[in-house]
Design goal:
By secondary structure, the chain is mainly alpha-helical. The chain has 13 helices and three strands. The chain has two domains: about 90 residues, DNA polymerase, domain 1 (Orthogonal Bundle), CATH 1.10.150; about 180 residues, Intergrase catalytic core (hpI Integrase, Chain A), CATH 1.10.443.10. It has a three-stranded antiparallel beta sheet with strand order 1-2-3. About 30% of the residues are buried.
Amino acid sequence: MIAEIETFLGALGGASRASRNTVSAYRRDLLDFHAYLQRGRTAIDQTGENVDCDAITTDHVRNYLATMMRVASRATVQRRLYAIKALFRWREVASGKSSPVRTMRGPKLEKRLPQVASEKVVDALVVADGAVDSPARARDRAILEVLYSCGLRVSELTGLCWKDIDEELGMVMVRAGKGNKDRLVPIGEPALDALRAWRATGVSDGAPESPVITNLRGGRLTPRSVQNLLARRINESGLDIDLTPHGLRHSFATHLLNAGADLRSIQEMLGHSSLQTTQRYTHVSARHLKEVYRRAHPRA
């Protein structure tokens, strides 16, 4: 099974042009399924060292998902099933072997509203340190400004190069985001000012091919480092909020919608392939409007 997983992942990253993050997630999920089968001594071949894909049945997958439901979220279980189905769908195409999971459905996902910070909280978070008096603070200000100004995923932010930023047009080229789709996103003047201040520190050489967001040694910053940075910034600011970099992306979309931006434009800026994904922000906006109505209407 291990060899088939690696061959499948090679095809996924090649012909299907899946991103490295997607391939990595599929590998992690499929290897977890393989480890489960080994622990249960089910679908094991005669050597006892590997799992035989031909021996895997619907019950094996169903029992695995039931085990996962006790320790993981429904979204995680759904993702694991999707990876397993993708592997067996590839086997069907490659060798004509039937899939034991073709008609299997995962658990229904909980409908959760995106986490959103108010405009006042975002402002307080961005300027929490007052004057920018060091390269680290200049970089941190640039990170928060760009995340909120452009609504980027954290991986898209850390993947930016200086050539992707057109200061004259006030646009950012987000290259090969989720779904391998490039897109142009507007960027505000405060974010551009923050980027200029960061570049002026000289930590990043500012060359077109160089990364925009780096550590203090000039190497590209990781998404995990950005998450840690935001957590530290929230702690320093004294704000009572549990916000992630993705929460700033949600805040970007919700604030645009509250200010009258249309869903189609927000969809383009976020890089959503489906308008349905963007429509979840209407629930957040409706909640905001109801609160305004409750406070302002004399007979609310």
